[in-house]
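PROTEIN DESIGN WORKSHEET
SECTION A - STRUCTURE
LENGTH: 139
TOKENS:
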């Protein structure tokens, strides 16, 4: 049974933004699934590797996200660039993907960077890292 998410210290108006270093669409998803199976060490999205199986989100990660009292938005790299152009949010100019961000009053804050996500090995470590980052964000 998945561990329940720690109570969020973020306010209900905050939004968790999960950005994958992958392209959108079925063709890309199929190519990504094959890439993760054949050459996982060269796959460019550590967040995808941890949070997704071959074709769907891992159940513990999905349950964890569902338990968070935050609105959530999921983006592929192109969608994120369109939704948050560099002119509006300068963080996108230096942001390496994948990343998990929080939008607070129109401002973006990085909770887990690409480097941090690259060091994680499984869903449990991802959930623990996000719990810590959310707690630190509000203190």
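SECTION B - SEQUENCE
RESIDUE ASSIGNMENT:
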């Amino acid at each position: 049974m998945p561990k329940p998410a720690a109570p969020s210290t973020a306010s209900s108006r905050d939004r968790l933004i999960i950005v994958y270093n992958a392209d959108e669409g079925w063709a890309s998803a199929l190519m990504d699934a094959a890439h993760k199976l054949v050459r996982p060490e060269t796959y460019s999205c550590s967040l995808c590797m941890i949070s997704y199986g071959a074709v769907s989100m891992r159940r513990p990660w999905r349950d964890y996200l569902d338990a968070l009292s935050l609105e959530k938005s999921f983006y592929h790299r192109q969608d994120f660039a369109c939704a948050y152009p560099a002119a509006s949010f300068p963080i996108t100019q230096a942001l390496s993907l994948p990343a998990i961000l929080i939008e607070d009053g129109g401002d973006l804050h990085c909770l887990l960077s690409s480097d941090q996500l690259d060091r994680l090995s499984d869903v449990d470590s991802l959930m623990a890292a996000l719990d810590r980052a959310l707690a630190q964000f509000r203190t």
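SECTION C - NOTES
Confidence is low (pLDDT under 50) at residues 1-9.
Residues 15-138 form one domain.
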